[in-house]
Write a structure and sequence with these properties.
Strand order of the largest sheet: 3-2-4-1-5-6-7
CATH superfamily: Phosphoglycerate mutase-like
Distance between the termini: 24 Å
Number of domains: 1
Number of strands: 7
Number of helices: 8
Length: 226
């Protein structure tokens, strides 16, 4: 059973026309390879540039709503597009990244450190492992994202919406909209260099990837590029 079949309506008439989905732009902690989770680092200069390119890539679309996580890096990513369309960013804690407990703000690459050992343990059971210090499992994060997604989609039937998440919450969004199994969703590389364009009411579901890279910003290709 896929996330899509379990949680979302199958009648194409209740879907938005297009859902634009992206991970937030590159943050200052992404640059230094620190675990972000639900901590609140801002965008780096590169992330602001990616946000600007997203607004430019969507300039010829119609857009009816802009949603994001309530963390600064997601709101900052959504803001240029919202401003271009005279919309407000609608932030939601449901779209936050998975909570990584005591790992947040720390480097994870040293396998001899406490955080490094915990991170390796997490990789052995990514669905259910919780970091000490209030950490959240992937399944718990998935549940809150899906609980947000269904009524939000229903509120925008026939419209176009933009949703800005984080690496893992964006995985859940893509999996739900494309009808992917959790194991496939968790394996998706999700980078800030792509904006995904999804036509959820089409049969089969339509998906395109729009580049946010400086060298070819705005170029669209069919399929889910990572």
């Amino acid at each position: 059973m896929t996330i899509h079949d379990s949680h979302l309506p199958r009648d194409p008439g209740v879907w938005p026309r297009r859902v634009f989905v992206a991970r937030h732009g590159r943050s200052v902690w992404n640059k230094s390879k620190r675990v972000s989770g639900q901590a609140n680092p801002p965008l780096a200069d590169e992330g602001h540039a990616q946000a600007t390119r997203m607004a430019e890539a969507l300039a010829d679309e119609s857009l009816h709503a802009v949603y994001s996580s309530d963390l600064d890096r997601a709101i900052q990513t959504a803001a240029p597009t919202a401003e271009r369309f005279a919309l407000r960013v609608q932030p939601s804690a449901a779209l936050r990244e998975q909570h990584f407990g005591i790992a947040e703000g720390q480097q994870r690459d040293d396998p001899e450190s406490e955080i490094g050992r915990l991170w390796q343990a997490r990789l052995l059971d990514r669905e259910h492992f919780r970091m000490p210090g209030g950490g959240e499992s992937y399944v718990e994060m998935e549940t809150r994202v899906l609980e947000w997604l269904r009524p939000t989609l229903a509120a925008h039937r026939g419209e176009n919406v933009l949703v800005i998440g984080h690496r893992n919450s964006t995985r859940v969004l893509l999996g739900a909209l494309l009808g992917l199994a959790r194991t496939d969703v968790m394996a998706l590389p999700v980078h800030a260099r792509w904006l995904y364009v999804i036509a959820p009411g089409d049969e089969p579901v339509g998906v395109w990837s729009c580049s946010l890279r400086e060298r070819d910003a705005g170029r669209r290709v069919a399929g889910l590029r990572t």
